[in-house]
Amino acid sequence: MVNVPLGSKMNKNYNITFWDKKSRESFTQSLIEEETLSILVQGKPYAVVMRTPGDEKEHVAGFCLSEGIVDDLDDFEHITRCEGSDAYAMNAKITTSRHRKIEKNLDKRGYISQTSCGICGKEVIDDIVKVTFPFRNEVKLNIEKAYKCLESLSKYQPLRRITRASHGAAIFGFDFEILSFAEDVGRHNALDKAIGKVFLKKKLSLATLVVLSSRISYELVQKAARARITTIIAVSRPTSLARDLAKKLNMTLACFAKNDGLYIYCGKKRLL
User: Which residues contact 120 (CB under 8 A, 6 or more apart)?
Assistant: First the structure.
């Protein structure tokens, strides 16, 4: 079992009432925390996300990589907390040369994951593929070991055991060693945090497999692709758009099968 200390702000205890159709009983239960995190780039507001407190620097680093704000750790000058506000805000300062390169994208408030409605699936895929190159097939994974990584995900989710309300993301290397893991009330945040931890340690080149507690949406495929991670295995199925994007990028998507094993939706040759 992985021993993960939980910050006091990640969950709170509340008095609740349980009714069993006959009587009522009062007891204390932990609920997961949810707060805003304002993300600034070059001191200007970029996004506000709802998230579980903790790992703010890693969260911002992973978010900026996923959004295409940075390509490399050297694109950052620093990531610091903004003082003088009751709300939690973090500022990502990027280098002048990087800022010039992505200035137009910043004005549009990021890549496709920041858009709302009014865009079709084909446009989503085409726009993401323009900034994310498809993978080759060099990396091969043992399917039995990959499956065991998915089976083991719960041991990296102590907050879920307490609150039953968090999503988890774990990143594994070539030899299936755990590189990072994170929990959050939001599945996107959990993946950003997990990616950010590996990114800040300069170990993204070792990242091979992402394991998720949620379904696989196209945004999660985008985030893994930006981190150059070829394979996603999740508890629940991918959406059709996620599968189409992953296939276009030559990624591997799989999830738990109903009676044991895995459903593989694309990239089956990567799993041996």
Answer: none
Phi-psi region of 52 (alpha: psi -120 to 50; beta: other; left: phi over 0): beta
Q: What is the DSSP string of 105-172?
A: HHHTTSSGGG--SS--HHHHHHHHHHHSPPP-S---B-HHHHHHHHHTGGGG-HHHHHHS--EEEEEE
* Residue 267 to residue 6: CA distance in whole angstroms: 36
Place of tokens 């591997």: 252
How many other C-beta atoms can be found within 10 angstroms of the C-beta atom of residue 111?
Answer: 20
CB atoms within 10 A of CB 185: 20
Q: Where are the domains of the chain?
A: 143-270
- pTM, full prediction: 0.86
How far apart, in Å, are the Cα atoms of 18 and each of 12, 28, 164, 267?
18, 10, 16, 47
**Residue 191 in 3-state DSSP?**
helix
Number of neighbours of residue 176 by Cβ within 10 angstroms: 15
Per CATH, domain 143-270 is 3.40.140.10 = yes
Helix, strand, coil abundance in the chain, percent, nearest 5 = 35, 30, 35
Active-site position among 82, 117, 255, 266: 117
List pLDDT tens digits, range 43-86.
Answer: 999 999 999 999 999 999 999 999 999 999 999 999 999 987 66
Between CA 229 and CA 252 the distance in angstroms is 10
Q: Is 117 a catalytic residue?
A: yes
